[in-house]
């Protein structure tokens, strides 16, 4: 089978968590059957409540059809995602990392710093993830696709953040990320009507507060936030920690 244009990471980060988990369960229980490759597409019978005929394009896994009630209404369903996983994996087993979903940033709870190579890799991954958080210039009919792109960007960033060790180095990295996101919201044309990016920023602020609890010296990285005008004042809790540390 020729591999599709999309990857497993693309499926994982661009699909909502519950749908991805259900799709994984279908794939791992051999419910994806009679898989055939067409012209830049894949078809299969996926066994659910009853057998469903499913198709996805090789170009985009969310372009396709399923005879279930969701798929018939044009909504991406677990059966389509399960077939997409099969197309990527070619029937091979998924690893624990393949299946791991991180859709909110959390503190890893481990102290340490990144090596130069690790830091470079993380910075590159952050830059790639930020490309999904972009200005909205399309017509209204593409707004939901755009919102999905924002979600994917935040999901990708969540996975990176949740693996970071706690140190002044990584605190500075996250402060820089917050400032880049803030710039996108303030002057970069990002339409955050659903609050996806704003909510993500607040979650990263909570992660940074956890950083300070584990390593109080991390607070020094918040110096960069002084005298900054941000979109909605997300920096205030961090500056309060900085001021309190200075007064002690």
- Residue share in helix: 40-55%
Rounded to the nearest angstrom, the radius of gyration is 21 Å
Structural class: alpha+beta
Largest sheet at a glance? 4 strands, antiparallel
Give the overall form: elongated
Uncertain segments are none
Number of separate strands? 4
Describe the strand arrangement of the main beta sheet, using strand numbers: 1-2-3-4
- Report strand %: 5-15%
Kindly give the count of domains: 2
Overall mean pLDDT stands at 94
The number of helical runs is 10
Oligomer: single chain
Q: Element order, helices and strands?
A: HHEEEEHHHHHHHH
What is the CA-CA span between the terminal residues?
Answer: 64 Å
Secondary-structure map with pairings?
Blueprint: H1 8-14, H2 17-28, E1 32-37, E2 41-47, E3 51-57, E4 64-66, H3 69-72, H4 78-89, H5 96-99, H6 116-130, H7 143-162, H8 168-187, H9 196-214, H10 236-247
Antiparallel strand pairs: 1-2, 2-3, 3-4
